[in-house]
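On to my pick:
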Amino acid sequence: MNNELVEYPSWWKRNWKWVVPVGGCLSLIVIFIILMGSIVWGVTSALEESQPYEYAIEKINQDEEIKRVLGSPIEKDGMIQGSYNYTNGKKSADMKIPVSGPNGSGTLFVEATGEDDDWTYNVIRVEITDDESINLLEEESDDF
């Protein structure tokens, strides 16, 4: 007997019963991860491009006390948490931004409200540790 004439089924015919469910589930998982990643990236980008974010980062890089504690330059060090709302010409921003410098790290808190292009900053504060906090708005009130 010679087995050379026996035709073996193709790889697809032998394995389709496990390839279809695994491939389908894996595809859905990959699509879900890509969708969630793009949502997170979009929201983070929108917060980073907001005026309160840019103003607060500029302000902490100009503050001598914060530069002494964290070092210079101070940059964002992680994902921004918070919200940015715009309704009928009124805006509000509430952000928690992890920051770091060469000497350490902390968390920058920004709360602001505004209309059109004008912003009023209620909070710009950097928490270095649980018991050390530097409020940048107190300095502004002393200057007036």
User: Anything to note?
Assistant: The chain has a mean pLDDT of 86.
